[in-house]
User: Which sequence fits this backbone?
């Protein structure tokens, strides 16, 4: 009985840690490469997978990532937090030859541009998020959690911009 209880507690802790993964864009390598582990989190990594929520927040004026290879994320929030009172526009660009798919076993594949609106109590303007498809492919909502497709929220509570210059966008 004691072994079963111990297994359940350890298994539950591991599952909750796995589900809580939220890689955050930091831009520490200053090359804007989505696939460079040094750009994710202050200490580097992990690079988002189909089982992660990727957070692309405004961080010290570091511009957002460019996807130029094959990449995945469970869901993407562009300009979600007001970490340390920093607000501003953040972007995600799907460049020539790049492919980004959202959705997985745990996430339905939503993409949110501009999560928070203005907060007059704190004197903060609305967050601003921008998705740019510039020659690449963006597929929102693939995966087991949502076989019918995902959701693209442009200006969920803040300000959102969607630019499709060239390439392919599927929602």
Assistant:
């Amino acid at each position: 009985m004691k072994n079963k209880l111990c297994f359940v507690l350890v298994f539950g802790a591991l599952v909750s840690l796995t589900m809580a993964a939220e890689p955050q864009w930091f831009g520490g390598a200053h090359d804007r490469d989505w696939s460079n582990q040094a750009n994710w989190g202050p200490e580097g990594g992990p690079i988002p997978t189909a089982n992660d929520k990727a957070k692309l927040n405004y961080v010290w004026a570091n511009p957002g990532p460019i996807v130029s290879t094959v990449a995945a994320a469970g869901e993407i929030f562009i300009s979600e937090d007001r970490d340390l009172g920093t607000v501003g526009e953040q972007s995600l660009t799907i460049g020539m030859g790049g492919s980004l798919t959202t959705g997985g076993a745990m996430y339905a594949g939503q993409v949110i541009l501009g999560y928070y609106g203005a907060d007059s109590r704190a004197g903060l303007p609305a967050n601003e998020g921008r998705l740019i498809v510039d020659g690449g492919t963006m597929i929102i909502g693939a995966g087991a959690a949502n076989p019918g497709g995902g959701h693209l929220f442009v200006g969920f509570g803040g300000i959102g911009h969607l630019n499709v210059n060239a390439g392919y966008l599927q929602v």
About this structure: The longest helix spans residues 2-19. The first strand starts at residue 53 and ends at 56. Residues 5-20 have pLDDT under 50 and may be disordered.
